[in-house]
Each structure stands twice: as C-alpha cells, then as structure tokens.
C-alpha cells in the first residue's frame, strides 16, 4: 500500500485556453501536451486537462492539424494559455545512404534554399529539415554533405533520398602531412626544412606551427618573413582564446526564447559552477603572479630608477582602481542575481499555494459530485416508485373507462337512432339554404359580369361610327376580346350546371387526357418557353366521371400556366404528377410562379374570388375545381410560398361507385 502511494503521481486539473495571434479564441482544435493523448477544444476555445508532476514544465505542444503550430504557451494560476499560428514551413524527412543502401550516420546535411538549413543524420541515416512553404526540392545541387558527394536524389511528397559517396581529397592538409611525415623521420626533416612560407595560411593549429618552425632559426629569416610568422602565431593564439571564451559561454548560448524553464535553470547552474571554478583558477593564478611580483620587488626594487618607480606606482594605482571597479561590478551582479533568485523563489511558493488551492478545489468538486450522485439516486428511486403507482392507477382507471365506454356506446346508439331523422332533415335544409345562397351569388355576379362586356361592346360600336377604318380595326379587336370574355364566363356557368348533372361513370385513361388538355395550351407554353413536365404512367386508368376529371385538370393547368408567367423569371416550370396509391389516385400540379399570399389562402376556392390583381379570369376556376372534386368524393389541398411556388394536390378514388344524378348533386351541394 505504501509502495503504490509512493509511486503514484499527483494529477491536477488545469484550464486550457487557445488563442490566435490577435488573442481571439480558437475553437474546435485537438491538442496533445508532451506527446500525450489529444484533448478536444470545444466551441468556446476552452477545455480542461489533467497533468501530472512529470508533465511540468510543459516541453511540447502538438496540434492534430499539421497546418498549425503552437507559437508560445504560458502556464499561470492553473490556466494554460496557448497561442496558435499557421505554420510558415513544412518538414521533409531525408534519408542519406551509400550506393549499397547502408545509412550514413552523423553526416551534416545542408539544404541551400532561401535560407541555409542544416541537420545531422541519426543512427538510421535520417534527418528532418524545415523548408519554407513555397520551396520545393528539384535537384541534388540544392543539398551538400560534409565529406561526401551526392550521386543521386530521389524525392516524393514529404520525403527525399540522397545517395552519396565519400569525397576524394585533392590536396593533403598540413596536419595530415605532418602525421605522414612523422612516420618517416628522414623525409620529415626534409619537409620541415623545405616548407614553403607562401603556404603559411594552410596552418590551422599551434601543433602544426610548432612542428614546422621548431627546426627554423627565426633570427636567420629576413624581416618580412619574421613578420608573417609572428602574425600567424598571433592569429593562432587569438583563435585559442576565442575557443576558450566560447567554451565559457556555452551554457549561456543554450538559453533562448524557445528553451524550457527547467533546462534554462540547469544551464544557469552549470554556468555558475563553471564561473566559480574559473574564479578559483584565476584567483590561484593571480596570487601566484602577485607572489612573483613581490619576490621581484624584494630583490630588485632598490635598483629601479625614479622614473621606473613612478611608472610602477601609477600601474599599482591603476590596478587598485580596476580591482575596485571589478569588486563594484561583482557586487552589482551579485545583487541582481539575488533579486532574480528571490523572484524565482516567490513564484515557486506562489505556484505551490496555487496548487494547494487547486487541490482543495478538486476535492470540493469530487465531494459535490458524490453528493450529486446520491441525490440523483434518491430522485431516481422516487421516480420509479411514482411510475409504478401511475401504472397501477392507469390499469384500474382503464378497466373503469372500458365499462363506462360500453355504457356510453349503448346510450349513444340509442340517441343516434332517435336523432337520425331530425339530423337528416336539418342537414338537407342546410344544404338547400347553402345552394340557394350560391345560386343568388351566381345570378348576381353573372348578370354583372355579363353586363360589363355588353356595355363595352355597345360603347365600342358607338365609337366605331365616328372613327376611320384603321381605328375601327383596333376597336374590332377589343370587341372580339370582350366577346371572348363573355363566352368564357358562359362556359364556366355551363360547367357549374354540368357539375350538378355529372353524367355516367366510365373508365378514363388519365395520361391521354392530360396530354390532350396540355395540347390546348401549346401556344402559350411554347411562346413563354415553359418547361411542362408530365409524370404519369400510360396504363393508369381510373373509373370516374370523365367530364368532371377534364374540368379539374383543365382549370388547374390553366391556373398554373397563368400564374407561372406572371413571375419575372429566366425559367418557367410546370410539373404535373399522377400516381395510384392504394385505392386512390393522387394528382399534383406544381408551378414556380408568384405563389399565393398567406392572407388569401383560405379564400382561394370561394366563388368569384380573384387572388391577384393581374388575373384576367372571372374567379370561378378554383371554385369549379373544388366542387368537381367534392362531387367525385375526393379532397383538394394547396401549398404555396409567396414569390416562389404553388402546388395543388387532389386525392380521388380510383373506382368511383356508380351513382345517379341526384346523389352526385347532393354531394356537390
């Protein structure tokens, strides 16, 4: 039990927020922290994630979308804020191998693009290099290998393969010459003695410099040669000093904006230890040099001249001043370092305090969850008990209702029988009153609508008596139009009369009848380029009254064509569908015209109602359609979107039982 507790890692909950570079929340992302499982960011750019002690400090943040990357992140007060940006580069995997396919390990690979990018191959001969988005690999000349020549380049979308062979060295470096000449003492002496001073720049180390010039007598050289040798010696000494300075700063150079805090502190510790060791060494050297100077002063101070003593005193005072300044700088840097350390300690203890608060908050959250679960179980138990009681109550209530329903059914049957005769008389009286009202309306409107074209014709005739021949021709056309309007109204009235005397029931080939009716409007369809589509099976036969079916189809097609062309559209379309469904046939006619306003949809089937101010009809078309549908025992509905479309749907029985004229008339009324 103790072993498990010691090995367990404390996990804490942190709030995760994602922002773009303008600090706007970024939503719907999948993020992996330290290469753990992905965490989904919701539609508010916020999520919660559990992190263990080993996850801190955060070393890497990776996004599932390979086009994005984490620009930076900050963990403070239990909130991890991540700045997201688009990648300005893409990574390509490069394999470096020999002609035999063996991987070349530890080889420096350089890509010479817009910027030079370098990397060193791993144990498998692979290296990954970042390239700009607009950079492409197209030739082996873009690459260079350290001590190898590239023989062949093979590329794919995100991979490249370099085949290389060792580079052939044309000249031998002075160091290698020295090592080779050392193996043969006789040739070595000849080489060093015969060294060409014009190749002095080829010497790159003090070892080679000493091996060459230990056999020379500097005093025997001429002045220009001595100056060249001295300059080369000073250059090699300077390189050695730079190398020492570089080693001294190697830890500081590892600290940058992209490194991790733990690594930065480790580098600072290493740098501090290095500086402490260097101070000890310098202190020992300094004390040794002071001792030597004191010895020299003891033995030779009296022999110094007045001028030398004055100069020595000035140098000692300068040394004192420099040491005082160094001491001041040391204490100043020391105080700055102490301030930084105090800040780090303060943040550390603040972090511990925050962790304690988060732990307390997490414990409180777990306790609330436990209490919530207990309340949920109690509520669920009460609901189950209440549901059982309701089921029992419903069962007994249902039994009582069935008994009551039987009694009510018996009473209702007796009442229906008693009231049947009275109801039939009332219904017939109501039907007759409705028929009389409609008849009055027909007579009034018909007389008015017939008088209007008659008056128009009479007025046109009076005008014709005083106009010339050309103007009389125009009046004649108007007389014809008025006459056609009168004829159309009379035909509608005759159709209403035919509905009341529908005729016999017979088989009707529905598809053929639709084609015949469409032919009547062929001229209008062609002139307006209407896309008239008929979807009907050729063998669809219904047993019904032919003239009523023809009235329904003709009026619906005429209505669809008229209101379709009223709309300002590039394409007019009328679709008529007919199909058999069980014992009924369903007719629908669709047009992409001006549609029907919702305020008048309830009045579409009223007698003499015109749904649009541009309508040239007399308001009887849809009224006749409704009466015809009712006479055939069907129903009609309308669906419309103003300014978009209209669709009329008619449902009729396929096999209409034969009725006499009086029965059909009663149905219409």
UniProtKB/TrEMBL annotation:
The keyword Cytoplasm does not apply. The chain crosses the membrane at residues 376-396. It is an enzyme of class 2 (transferase). InterPro entries: BphY/WalK/GraS-like (IPR050351), HATPase_C_sf (IPR036890), HATPase_dom (IPR003594), His_kinase_dom (IPR005467), HisK_dim/P_dom (IPR003661), HisK_dim/P_sf (IPR036097), Sig_transdc_His_kin-like_C (IPR004358). Residues 351-427 form a coiled coil. Keywords: Coiled coil, Kinase, Membrane, Phosphoprotein, Transferase, Transmembrane, Transmembrane helix. It catalyses: ATP + protein L-histidine = ADP + protein N-phospho-L-histidine. Its EC number is 2.7.13.3. GO terms for biological process: osmosensory signaling via phosphorelay pathway. One of its GO terms (molecular function) is protein kinase activator activity. Pfam families: HATPase_c. Residues 445-656 form the Histidine kinase domain. It comes from the Bacteria. This is histidine kinase. It comes from Fulvivirga imtechensis AK7.
């Amino acid at each position: 039990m103790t072993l498990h507790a010691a090995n367990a890692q404390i996990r804490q909950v942190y709030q995760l927020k994602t922002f773009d570079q303008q600090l706007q929340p970024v939503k719907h992302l999948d993020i992996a922290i330290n290469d753990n499982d992905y965490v989904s960011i919701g539609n508010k750019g916020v999520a919660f994630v559990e992190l263990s002690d080993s996850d801190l400090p955060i070393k890497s943040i990776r996004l599932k979308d390979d086009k994005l990357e984490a620009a930076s992140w900050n963990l403070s007060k239990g909130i991890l804020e991540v700045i997201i940006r688009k990648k300005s580069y893409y990574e390509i995997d490069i394999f470096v191998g020999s002609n035999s396919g063996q991987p070349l390990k530890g080889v420096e690979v350089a890509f010479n693009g817009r910027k030079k990018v370098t990397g060193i191959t791993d144990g498998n001969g692979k290296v990954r290099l970042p390239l700009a988005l607009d950079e492409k690999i197209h030739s082996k000349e873009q690459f260079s290998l350290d001590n190898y020549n590239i023989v062949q380049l093979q590329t794919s979308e995100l991979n490249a393969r370099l085949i290389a062979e060792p580079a052939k060295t044309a000249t031998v470096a002075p160091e290698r010459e020295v090592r080779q000449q050392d193996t043969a003492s006789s040739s070595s002496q000849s080489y060093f003695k015969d060294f060409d001073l014009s190749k002095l720049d080829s010497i790159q180390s003090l070892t080679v410099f000493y091996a060459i010039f230990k056999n020379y007598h500097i005093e025997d050289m001429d002045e220009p040669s001595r100056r060249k040798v001295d300059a080369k010696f000073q250059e090699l000494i300077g390189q050695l000093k730079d190398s020492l300075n570089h080693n001294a700063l190697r830890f500081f150079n590892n600290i940058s904006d992209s490194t991790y805090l733990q690594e930065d502190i480790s580098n600072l510790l290493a740098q501090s230890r290095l500086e402490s060791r260097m101070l000890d060494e310098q202190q020992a050297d300094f004390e040794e040099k002071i001792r030597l100077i004191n010895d020299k002063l003891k033995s030779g101070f009296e022999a110094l001249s007045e001028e030398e003593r004055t100069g020595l005193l000035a140098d000692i005072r300068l040394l004192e001043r420099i040491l005082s300044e160094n001491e001041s700088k040391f204490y100043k840097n020391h105080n700055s370092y102490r301030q930084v350390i105090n800040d780090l300690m303060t943040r550390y203890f603040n972090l511990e305090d925050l962790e304690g608060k988060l732990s307390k908050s997490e414990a409180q959250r777990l306790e609330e969850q436990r209490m919530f679960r207990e309340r949920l179980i109690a509520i669920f138990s009460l609901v189950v008990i209440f549901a059982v009681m309701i089921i029992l109550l419903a069962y007994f209530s249902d039994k009582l209702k069935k008994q009551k329903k039987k009694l009510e059914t018996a009473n209702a049957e007796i009442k229906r029988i008693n009231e049947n005769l009275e109801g039939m008389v009332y219904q017939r009286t109501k039907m007759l009153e409705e028929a009389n009202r409609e008849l009055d309306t027909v007579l009034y409107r018909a007389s008015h609508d017939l008088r209007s074209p008659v008056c128009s014709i009479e007025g046109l005739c009076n005008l014709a008596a005083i106009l010339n021949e050309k103007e009389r021709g125009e009046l004649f056309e108007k007389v014809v139009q008025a006459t056609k309007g009168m004829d159309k109204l009379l035909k509608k009235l005759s159709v209403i009369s035919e509905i009341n005397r529908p005729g016999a029931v017979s088989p009707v080939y529905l598809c053929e009848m639709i084609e015949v009716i469409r032919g009547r409007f062929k001229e209008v369809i062609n002139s307006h380029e209407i896309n008239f589509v008929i979807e009907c099976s050729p063998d669809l036969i219904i047993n019904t009254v032919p003239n009523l079916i023809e009235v329904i189809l003709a009026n619906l097609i005429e209505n669809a064509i008229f209101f379709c062309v009223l709309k300002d559209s590039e394409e007019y379309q009328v679709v008529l569908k007919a199909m058999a469904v069980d014992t009924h046939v369903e007719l629908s006619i669709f047009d992409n015209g001006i549609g029907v306003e919702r305020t008048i949809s309830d009045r579409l089937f009223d007698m003499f109602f015109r749904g649009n101010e541009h309508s040239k009809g007399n308001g009887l078309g849809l009224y006749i359609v409704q009466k015809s549908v009712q006479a055939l025992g069907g129903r009609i509905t309308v669906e419309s979107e103003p300014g978009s479309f209209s669709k009329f749907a008619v449902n009729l029985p396929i096999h209409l039982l034969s009725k006499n004229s009086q029965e059909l008339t009663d149905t219409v009324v």
